[in-house]
Write a structure and sequence with these properties.
173 residues, TIM Barrel, four-stranded parallel sheet, 14% strand, globular
Length: 173
Amino acid sequence: MNGDWYPWDEGVNGNTAGQYVQAWRHVHDLFVRARATNVSWMWSPNVPYQGSRALAGLYPGAAYVDTVALDGYNFGTSQSGTTWIEPDTLFAGGLSQLRALAPHKPIVIGETASAEAGGAKNNWISSLVPYLAAQSDVTGFFWFDQNKETDWRIDSSSASSAAFNAALAARRR
């Protein structure tokens, strides 16, 4: 909702400021009226970037959100105009904004992955896991394991697969 690549993003298809929050709250309220109490609400913007919508204007509010999340990808040089970005640089600003908007809410990295092009994906993975583990309010992360815009898969190379296994094994100790 804070980008420009989906039809529901503010500023796209004639969507105006505030409509995203109104839609979120409307759907949430429908669930409440239906007494669907087994639903958990996770709000997950993309990491802020130059030109993205401000998160503060898109947050539905504490009464409408159980968990906040952040999506962020290291495109490396896999796309025109993208560069390698380390996990701490990718997530730090967005995590700070989430903490300010939703203090005391659990945080999840809703989607993340790294390209191989432009750097060492295995090193990126080896940095990602301890960086996130050092964030006491980040409770987990989801790896986007698809070959889509680029090969995001954990096992896109034997080095990235080994790094992922080693980083998770180190966390279990």
